[in-house]
Amino acid sequence: xSENLIPCEVVIERLFAYLDRELDESTRxxxxxxxxRCHDCFSRKEFETRLREKVMASSTEKAPDHLRRxxxxxxxxx
Length: 78
Ligand SMILES: [Zn+2]
Known about the structure:
Bound molecules: zinc ion
Largest sheet: none
CATH topology: Arc Repressor Mutant, subunit A
Helix content: over 70%
CATH class: Mainly Alpha
Number of strands: 0
Structural class: mainly alpha
Order of helices and strands: HHHH
């Protein structure tokens, strides 16, 4: 490979910031470039994207009552 790509570890490390769009434009472009060339990181990104969509979708649904009571009991001060 003649092009200088940033290493996979850097992409993985910044993946969440990338997905949250917290990166500056040049870092973002570097990661985009890497994702176009690296299948491993690309599928990781796809996986994270889908996972986030699922979490977002499920967090709009109400948690079951019995589960919520258990969580509240755990969090309640004694
Ligand atoms: Zn990679």
